[in-house]
Design brief:
Blueprint: H1 3-40, H2 51-57, H3 62-87, H4 93-103, H5 113-120, H6 124-152, H7 160-177, E1 180-185, E2 191-193, H8 196-220, H9 225-243, H10 251-274
Antiparallel strand pairs: 1-2
């Protein structure tokens, strides 16, 4: 994929991220007054790596989920703008898939469908579609980060467009095959799907291989910068997992910090590797 083509994809991501943020702002007037009641009707607490500890110490605070949705949209928009600005003239194959990972946070906007459904009594099909699109976005993100790690090790397929298409198809198959319970959601306003634990383990496994690939690139590419990129991927994994399942205020700054530092580690080191190429 040529540099202008990659930049156009990033610009499209920026445009869609801007659109999702505007939709959030417009919807907020309707959603905020009923958000607390909608979150209180959740079937269970969210599932994340630190959630068992959170459940013991803190009770769910409904508006924390609202802020986490806004933070997801803002993160996607700001990070994509920075990627476009710093990599506009830098040929770096890994950064395109890192941008896809970041763009996947835009799909979290669809969690707003849950309170909108309560406000407008939408047909159940809207909740099912939203649940599947959220799953699609999450697997699009983790598979994109995995693809970025493969490029880091020296894997060089002829056309990036084929890899992108493959990631989209796999994500669509997974999202379409998961049973969705349109009448149930957790305290983070994640629409419940079947095999939630299995999906979490699958995400963890993919991230594990991605991080391993970045560390392996230290030897295959002969650059210690990939060690820092691997650390950044670890921070992204935990930050993403925490943010997308936030239902208390205390975890929001933790998730935001992990995502910010992880993104900075990956992008700054990739820029340093490819700056003089």
């Amino acid at each position: 994929m040529t540099l202008p083509q990659r930049n156009r994809l990033v610009l499209i991501g920026i445009a869609l991220s801007t659109f999702s943020f505007i939709v959030l702002l417009i919807s907020a007037k309707t959603v905020v007054p009923i958000f607390s009641d909608t979150a209180a009707a959740a079937s269970r607490r969210t599932i994340s790596f630190i959630q068992p500890l959170i459940n013991i110490i803190f009770k769910p605070q409904p508006y924390a989920a609202l802020v986490s949705i806004f933070l997801s949209s803002i993160y996607a928009l700001v990070a994509l703008i920075l990627i476009y600005f710093f990599f506009e003239k830098t040929q770096c194959q890994e950064i395109l898939f890192a941008a896809f990972f970041i763009f996947s946070f835009c799909f979290e906007t669809l969690r707003f469908v849950v309170p909108l459904n309560a406000a407008h009594e939408l047909p159940r099909i809207f909740l099912i579609i939203a649940g599947r699109m959220i799953l699609f976005g999450r697997f699009l993100g983790i598979l994109s980060l995995f693809a970025s790690s493969l490029y880091a090790t020296g894997f060089q397929p002829q056309r990036q467009s084929h890899i992108i298409l493959l990631i989209i198809i796999i994500s669509m198959i997974i999202a379409a095959g998961m049973p969705i319970d349109a009448l149930s959601w957790d305290t983070g306003l994640n629409i419940l799907s079947g095999y939630s634990t299995m999906l979490l383990l699958a995400e963890t496994g993919i991230f594990f291989f991605a991080v391993t690939s970045f560390f392996a690139a230290v030897y295959s590419r002969g650059s210690k910068e990939f060690l820092y990129i691997g650390v950044g991927a670890i921070l992204l994994f935990f930050g993403r997992n925490i943010l997308l399942n936030s239902d208390t205020w205390i975890v929001l700054p933790i998730a935001s910090s992990l995502l910010s530092f992880g993104t900075w580690f990956i992008c700054s080191r990739l820029h340093q590797i490819y700056l003089w190429l």
